[in-house]
Design goal:
With 273 residues, this protein is mainly beta. It has one domain. 10% of the residues lie in helices and 33% in strands. The chain is globular, with a radius of gyration of 19 Å.
């Protein structure tokens, strides 16, 4: 995945704002491979199956990439803690999920970059190792699955392949994602539409990749019972709980919407869309 200098982009955007040359949102809309305005998500709150609020806290490395997402309630945690590792080129190498409060991986993804536009994902399930230890070997796990992803010129996943575990490991095409003129993937179900704001996953390319969501905008409900709120950078404060096909950040949510907090690198007035 192509890296973008986060602070360089922030500086460019700040300069742009000072000169009143172009709105931040216009820049993002015309560059589907760019990050959102210079913000990163810091907390994400959902309601667990037990009815309590789980507060996931995000931590990042010096490059601005996530290294963990953990429920701050360590007494009665819920959902999954998530961990991320990178290679020397700051490409995502490992993505691990463990039951909150534990270190035994439920799933462990290993990524291999065969070409700039082709990434292999080997995911190992259960008994795959301690998330604090080196990566496990797939053949030593109870079960593993191999997939591959083809990327377009904007580093978006456009094809998903399944690769058999046994030789000759010939990939078979599973799905093709076609983005519309607005840069959004097809709607996943009825009663949904896209807003005209910035998809929260665009705050970091790691989110886009692991959750396979490269759409420019956020999904919203059209039933009239959902009232989205946004920060000054157009990022959603109460993301819709798309429970029938996907939970934001893969965290179960018993409530109709989640709540998100962000930290932004520059201060400014509201964006006029």
């Amino acid at each position: 995945m192509t890296k973008i200098n986060f602070f360089g982009l922030a500086a460019c955007l700040a300069l742009c704002l000072l000169s009143s040359c172009k709105k931040v949102y216009d820049y993002i809309q015309e560059h589907p491979d760019a990050y959102s305005p210079p913000c990163r998500i810091t907390n994400f709150r959902v309601v667990s199956v037990a009815g309590r609020e789980a507060n996931y806290v995000f931590t990042y490395n010096r490059k601005g990439n996530p290294i963990s997402m953990m429920d701050s309630n360590r007494i009665t945690p819920a959902g999954y803690d998530q961990y991320f590792r990178y290679d020397k080129q700051e490409r995502l190498s490992d993505f691990m999920l463990a039951y909150a409060g534990n270190f035994g991986a439920v799933a462990w993804h290993k990524y291999f970059y065969l070409r700039p536009d082709y990434i292999i994902d080997t995911v190992m399930f259960y008994d795959t190792g301690d998330v604090r230890e080196p990566s496990p070997i797939a053949k030593n796990t109870n079960q593993y699955r191999i997939s591959a992803y083809t990327l377009d010129n904007f580093d978006r996943i456009i094809k998903i392949w399944s690769i058999p575990n046994d030789l000759p490991n010939t990939p078979s095409l599973q799905s093709v994602i076609v983005y519309d003129a607005n840069g959004n993937a097809p709607l996943p179900g009825a009663g949904l539409s896209y807003d005209k704001k910035v998809n929260l996953y665009r705050t970091n390319k790691v989110w886009q990749f692991v959750y396979m969501n490269y759409s420019r905008n956020n999904l919203v409900s059209t039933d009239g019972n959902y009232f989205p709120r946004y920060n000054d950078f157009g990022l959603p404060l109460n993301p819709l709980n798309q429970r029938w096909f996907n939970y934001p950040f893969n965290q179960y949510n018993a409530a109709p919407e989640a709540n998100a907090d962000y930290s932004c690198a520059i201060s400014k007035g509201p964006v006029v869309y």
